[in-house]
From TrEMBL:
Keyword entries, A-Z: Cell cycle, Cell division, Mitosis, Nucleus
InterPro entries: HORMA_dom, HORMA_dom_sf, Mad2-like
Subcellular locations according to the entry: Nucleus
Sequence similarity: Belongs to the MAD2 family.
PANTHER family to which the protein is assigned, alphabetical: MITOTIC SPINDLE ASSEMBLY CHECKPOINT PROTEIN MAD2, MITOTIC SPINDLE ASSEMBLY CHECKPOINT PROTEIN MAD2A
Location (main, coarse): nucleus
Protein known as: HORMA domain-containing protein
Entry coiled-coil feature ranges: none
Domain HORMA: start-end pairs: 19-218
GO biological process terms held by the UniProt record: cell division; mitotic spindle assembly checkpoint signaling
GO cellular component terms attached to this protein's record: cytoplasm; kinetochore; nucleoplasm
Superkingdom of origin: Eukaryota
């Protein structure tokens, strides 16, 4: 076994602490968003490149502006995840001309109870006295989590088989739901939920790091309800 192979094996066998869980969840969001943008044709296919991740070939954007935007979002998400402030991330797909919400990809985040009453505490020096996640390392291995994530990415890839065609030029927005006491950057704006009236819903798989759990689902507007 080569040194590189050993390093990769060691990484896969590593148990997950809070920092590792935050990295895994943030990375999943990045690849999931990219997969949605590619599969739903929000960006042209030639603006994506192939990467190997989670035992799959995934596609990620080469658009520098989009990369910078997503990296900025993921950096902020990492901060909120560390502090236990994130409730869910929603990818909203809407028609450019109609302005109508056509799809909502929702990723619900919860902090897992590991049965340790001292796992979540408060910092007395924090002016907001906000709860801090101080959970011990989970017994779950990175490889196990990656296998669960792989199943979700496969479902996103297969979404073209059950979602209606997007018959107009579409754009996307990212909505992040946080606790009320979360510190929000000044450049971020409030948004309405962008719900879809009389929507259909497909629940996707979930994954757990034993520190965080992410449940996924997509809601969409029925094709015969569109104003074509």
């Amino acid at each position: 076994m080569s040194q590189l192979q050993q390093v990769l094996k060691d990484e896969q066998d590593t148990v997950i602490n809070l920092k590792g869980s935050v990295a895994i969840v943030s990375e999943f969001f990045y690849y999931a968003i990219n997969s949605i943008l590619y599969q739903r044709g929000i960006y042209q296919p030639e603006t994506f490149k192939r990467e190997s991740k989670y035992g799959l070939t995934v596609l990620t954007t080469t658009d520098e502006g989009l990369i910078a935007y997503l990296n900025q979002i993921m950096a902020q998400m990492s901060t909120w995840l560390t502090d236990g402030k994130v409730q869910r991330l929603v990818v909203v797909v809407s028609g450019v001309d109609s302005g109508e919400t056509l799809e909502r990809w929702q990723f619900q985040v919860s902090v897992e109870d590991q049965g340790d009453t001292s796992a979540v505490g408060s910092d007395e020096n924090d002016p907001m006295n906000a709860p801090k996640i101080t959970k011990p390392a989970s017994k779950k291995k990175v490889k196990e989590v990656h296998n669960e994530i792989q199943a979700i990415i496969r479902q996103i890839t297969a979404s073209v088989t059950f979602l209606p065609l997007l018959n107009e030029l579409c754009s996307f927005d990212l909505l992040v739901y946080t606790n009320k006491d979360a510190v929000v950057p000044k450049k971020w704006e409030d948004s309405d939920p962008r719900y879809i009236i009389n929507s259909q819903e497909v629940k996707l798989r979930s994954f757990s790091t034993s520190v965080h759990k992410v449940d996924s689902l997509v809601t969409y507007k029925e094709a015969d309800e569109w104003d074509l």
